[in-house]
Design brief:
The chain is of the alpha+beta class. It is built from eleven helices and 15 strands. Strands 3, 4, 5 and 7 form a four-stranded antiparallel beta sheet that branches. Strands 1-13-10 form a three-stranded mixed beta sheet, with no helix packed on it. It has a two-stranded antiparallel sheet with strand order 2-6. α6 crosses α7.
Length: 414
């Protein structure tokens, strides 16, 4: 007896639900086969750390030593120093505990905020402390109603920071609790012809690449122009041509390239190996996480794989920096912690009261803390935290003395 045509069609063309199951099963099988065939990503390896002056592998040791010498070299007026400036070498502001480290040196930033608009101090946002001639010494002007001191930051380990993918910072912001969520801002990359990338360097995350960061410092801290920033600052808005004998640009890339190679080749600041496993330190680290400090002072980050293009297309992550785990205790995002200075840089007016989370690696080597260097103890720095950090700071205030000591012991191990 022949079977009904409808039943036969059903065998050849299963019911819709069954057809979907067959399709899904086939798709799942294909996906599993594809994933099995695709090589697993290599495991992340620990970033090099230490204050030993040795390379992290980006440069050969002899090249790193030469670049460090350039970083520490004292510039002269014949090299383009000035006419207004803060220091005569990079090493003058980055030397604690070794070349490239942090500093007790502060710069003075000034500008004006009127009718919802921020303008830099005439001649540049930095009011230089020194000048080649008394006639062009800079000063705060009556029009400057926004003033801020800025502590020089460490650049040790910044090669790893530069090698983190933009998407990583964006993901960190999305995953943070809403009340403490940081802001990832896209900023221009000077060497990338108008391209933008997530800022991560400077107190306002105003730069995304170490080359942009170095060019900015060379001009604003030492008064030396480059092909990326070829125009000399004025002195409080007054021309300085009569005091500047070197044609612009004063650096054609040689010094900037050396500075950047040096920064990319430095090891990350290490923990105090003798204290990491001390009982009080371990308990303090647990408190650090429980209070929510680690939401912004993020303990661990991983760089992008070698070969990844970052910095708006201007830089490719080298093998020595690729897929490395490092421990900055910072998220490199902007937050409002109640200490905002009102200065606007590349991030736009919404960032005027925000600062980059200060990375805590190397904390034990610093005697001046916070953006202005005015906190002289870790306890005082914690007490100054408000805004998005108020919950963690309030938790600190409520700790009994022995628990505070544990937290301070942990921070002293960084």
């Amino acid at each position: 007896m022949t079977r009904p045509i409808r039943a036969l069609v059903g065998e050849l063309h299963p019911a819709p639900r069954l057809r979907r199951a067959v399709v899904l099963s086939t798709a799942a099988l294909f996906a599993l086969t594809f994933l099995a065939a695709r090589p697993a990503p290599p495991p992340s390896t620990e970033a090099e750390s230490g204050y030993d002056g040795l390379t992290n592998g980006v440069s050969a040791q002899d090249e790193l030593d030469l670049d460090r010498a350039t970083f520490d070299e004292v510039e002269e007026p014949d090299d383009g120093l000035g006419p207004t400036y803060n220091a005569s070498s990079c090493g003058s502001c980055h030397a604690t505990p070794v070349s490239g480290g942090s500093s007790q040196v502060v710069e003075l930033r000034a500008g004006s905020w009127r009718d919802g608009r921020y303008d830099d101090h005439p001649g540049g946002g930095v009011v230089a402390d020194r000048a080649l001639d008394a006639a062009i010494q800079e000063h705060v002007l009556p029009s400057d109603n926004v003033l801020s001191l800025r502590l020089s930051t460490s650049i040790l380990g910044d090669g790893y920071v530069e090698a983190v993918a933009d998407s990583t910072f964006e993901a960190i912001a999305r995953q943070q609790p809403r009340e403490v969520r940081g802001l990832a801002v896209k900023v221009p990359v000077l060497e990338a012809e108008g391209a933008e990338a997530i800022g991560r360097f400077g107190w306002k995350c105003q730069h995304a690449s170490l080359l942009s960061f170095a060019a900015d410092a060379y001009l604003n801290e030492m008064g030396i122009t480059s092909e990326l920033l070829p125009t000399e600052n004025t002195s409080d808005g007054r021309p300085v041509d009569a005091f500047d004998a070197v044609p612009d640009p004063e650096d054609h890339g040689e010094d900037l390239d050396a500075f950047v190679r040096f920064m990319r080749s430095t090891k990350a600041p290490p923990r105090d190996a003798g204290q990491v496993d001390a009982p009080g330190v371990r308990q303090g680290e647990s408190l650090f996480r429980q209070l929510g400090c680690a939401d912004c002072h993020l303990p661990d980050l991983v760089t992008a794989p070698a070969g990844t293009v970052v910095a708006g297309g201007a830089y490719t992550v080298p093998e020595a920096l690729g897929n490395r785990v490092f421990h900055p205790y910072g998220d490199f995002l902007l937050h409002d912690v109640g200490t905002g200075d009102g200065v606007v840089q590349n991030g736009g007016v919404e960032t005027r009261d925000m600062f980059r989370t200060a990375p805590l690696w190397g904390l034990r080597t610093r005697s001046h803390l916070m953006h202005d260097g005015l906190s002289l103890t870790v306890s005082d720095a914690i007490r100054r935290h408000g805004g998005q950090a108020r919950g963690a700071a309030d938790g600190w205030r409520q700790l009994p003395r022995d628990r505070r000591r544990q937290l301070l012991d942990f921070l002293a191990s960084l």
